[in-house]
Amino acid sequence: GRAWVLRPPEGVAWKAAVHFTGGAFASILPRLSYGLLLEKLAKRGVFVVATPYSTGFDYTKCVGEAFGVFNEASSLLQLDSDPISGKTVSELPVYGVGHSLGSVVQLLGGCTVTGAAAAAAAAAPGRQGNVLISFNNKPASEAVPVFGKVVGEEMRDGGMGSFAPMLTQALSSQQQMGSAMQAQMAQVNAMISMLAQSPSQLAQLAPMLEMLGVSADQLEELLPVLSQIQTLSNDMASGNTEFSPSRGEIRDLVASGGYQTTRSLLVRFADDGIDETPALEQLLTEAAGEDAGDNVKSVTLPGGHTSPMSISMPGVAANSRPKTGGVADGPLSSDFPASSSSSGRSRSMSSSSSRSMSKVLQERDMEYLADSIVGWMEDRI
Q1: Considering the entire predicted model, what is its pTM?
Q2: What is the pLDDT of residues 352-367, one digit of tens each?
Q3: Fewer CB atoms near the end CB (10 Å): N or C, the chain?
Q4: Alpha-carbon distances, residue 106 vs 205, 225, 313, 367 (angstroms)
């Protein structure tokens, strides 16, 4: 993976640097999944480094991957300087910001964990604080189906046409498969491996993809997400069906003082039915003791679990997008066209009006979220 970097626009002073980690499945594509939120942070003076990582049952691998990419990016960017103040990136206060599973990654990155995750987290620049959004630490049997459904629905709204329900089913039913379904998934996984190794094969699938409302270019963008389905399938075939460290182990780790990041902002959304922020707030408050009043803050904002996300599939040629290499620069336009399929063109007026209203509300929720994050940071900058 590689970091996606957003610098504050010209004329905006740099206030802080943020290491951003996204939620399950969407985490591998922060540019496409969270571009709108990250742009809003950059416009408020935040130097954003968003690091992709693969969703898996081993949380320590997620932490090691995300923090490893962040450390690599930090070393490459440390001498970048603000044209206004002259401050370099290495002189900016650093904050972690994570959404959903990404908040678990940031929480564990601030803990005294072991293995590769410990090495990567220890090597990271010191954190002034963490922003933990829509924290959720449910067991895998509950989390995987819910997050698969959430991401699939976001992709549908982002212009994925009839392909989205199929993806939703694949993401959300991994742990309820019978032998016949497992055999079908084995065939799907083989196809994913083939496409990942040779994306040019996608052109042969164009007629079928058109019927599903998705282009070959869009599917190519999604290959990293599809590859995670394969990874989870392989994990379950090996008998790995639960997250590690477990829910109880994470709770004990934090309760015993293992969470070393002093300040935390906890963000939950009013209409988020799977949020577990109140339990985390109680845990952090008890661990902080008499310092909790200054160091543990929480805020409830309008919106739901996916409010920070803005999945929108680009309709540009695949060859015009960077594929590999160290650090990729933004920004990302939030106005990518949706699929050009006939199903996309035949939306009803009521559906169009509903989507327009949804976009207005999403924009509002993003503004509230960005203001809350940066306002909290500015209290100590």
Answers
A1: 0.77
A2: 566 566 777 778 889 9
A3: C
A4: 39, 21, 27, 22
